[in-house]
Sequence to fold (64 residues):
Amino acid sequence: MFKEYRIKKGYTQEKVAEALGISTRHYQRLEEEPKRLPSFELFKKIVKVLEIEDKDIVKYIKNK
Fold:
């Protein structure tokens, strides 16, 4: 899910990681390993940075 929104926004992984205050590698792992869950605080930041819609958040959580 994160990758799709990042690409739609035209952001690089580096740009998103910088905005989140995490390493690029940490962000890459979140995209590469869909079973890996970020902390709640990090999830909120990702949603804000990527402007993820509420309906997609609910869908993401249900699929976990």
Notes: The two ends are 12 Å apart (CA to CA). Residues 40-50 form the longest helix (11 residues). The chain is about 70% helix and 0% strand. The chain has a mean pLDDT of 91.
